[in-house]
Amino acid sequence: MLTKFLFLQIVGLFFKLIVAEWNTQDYERREHSLTKPYQGSSMSVPYWDFLGSTIVTSNYVRLTPDLQSKSGAIWNTVPCYTRNWEVQVQFKVHGRGKDLFGDGLALWYVRDRMQTGPVFGSKDYFYGLAIILDTYSNHNGAHNHQHPYISAMINNGSLHYDHDRDGTHTQLSGCEAKFRNYNHDTHIYIVYKDDTLIVSTDLEGKNAWKECLKVENVLLPTGYYFGASATTGDLSDNHDIIAIKMYELDLLETQNRDEDRSHIIPSAASFEAPRDRVEDAKPAMSGIKTFLWMMAVAIVIIVIVVLGIMWYQKRQEQSRKRLY
Ligand SMILES: *[C@@H]1O[C@H](CO)[C@@H](O)[C@H](O)[C@H]1NC(C)=O
Ligand SMILES: [Ca+2]
């Protein structure tokens, strides 16, 4: 009796999961998505505008080629009025560089679209969310993490993205992620639901999401735009977007359908503790310098010991003399 009950429970749960899975699929929003074939009947791509070096082929949208000093972006033309959403981006970063490559790309949910600027090809002091896939470490000193590196930043227009520190002073959270030069598909998955931001990746071609970062109490307004941008400098890479799929997620029971979220100022309750604020350590002493330094210390110690022995012997002699 009990096992039968449990069995039914498990079967029920299983079906619920499948239906939940289907539901999310049902809510794909075409007007915020970019999928093949990209071009409509005309040369333009429905719902997306292009900037800079971006080119569209039948298989990918290339934001930058593997050439120096390029910058490109794509911007959704329709503002997003969905409160809870998820965005899956299939991308490909690849190039000839084995050890030297850059600079990276950024995915955006921001107020101002189609603006060029220094933050991976887009505007600094932005309003909204940036997910940054930074391939090149601009920081010369020891970093607390390796590159490529994925991080999240929320801005209300007041914060500057500091390339010299790879944005570590303004990031909410981040993770190391090797995403370059794979033959299989690479994906990043951004969920904004219940004021919680979760970024996951699928980089190993295993069809499994791996959590990169999770931040609670993130406030983002509705009415912002999705976009992607990339840039190259002295170093370069191909930065390709293969697909963007945006899904509307159901409102939670605690969320009010009529609440106006359009005037919210982007904010996050917790920033990651600032890192690397200490200046870079002075370069270590060279081998010869260290050797000479140790020699000097050794000589001083020997002299002190010899003087000590001489003083001790003299004292012994004096006390012996006194005895006689
Ligand atoms: C904007 O963000 C900065 C840094 O987090 C904060 O100090 C400031 O109070 C914020 N301004 C508004 C209007 O929320
Ligand atoms: Ca960097």
UniProtKB/TrEMBL annotation:
It comes from the Eukaryota. The keyword Transcription does not apply. Keywords: Disulfide bond, Glycoprotein, Golgi apparatus, Lectin, Membrane, Metal-binding, Signal, Transmembrane, Transmembrane helix. GO terms for biological process: endoplasmic reticulum to Golgi vesicle-mediated transport. Residues 1-20 form the signal peptide. Pfam families: Lectin_leg-like. It is a single-pass type I membrane protein; Single-pass membrane protein. It is found in: Endomembrane system; Golgi apparatus membrane. Its main location: membrane. Residues 26-249 form the L-type lectin-like domain. InterPro entries: ConA-like_dom_sf (IPR013320), Intracellular_Lectin-GPT (IPR051136), Lectin_leg (IPR005052). The keyword Disulfide bond applies. One of its GO terms (cellular component) is COPII-coated ER to Golgi transport vesicle. Gene3D superfamilies: 2.60.120.200. The chain crosses the membrane at residues 291-312. GO terms for molecular function: D-mannose binding; metal ion binding. This is L-type lectin-like domain-containing protein.
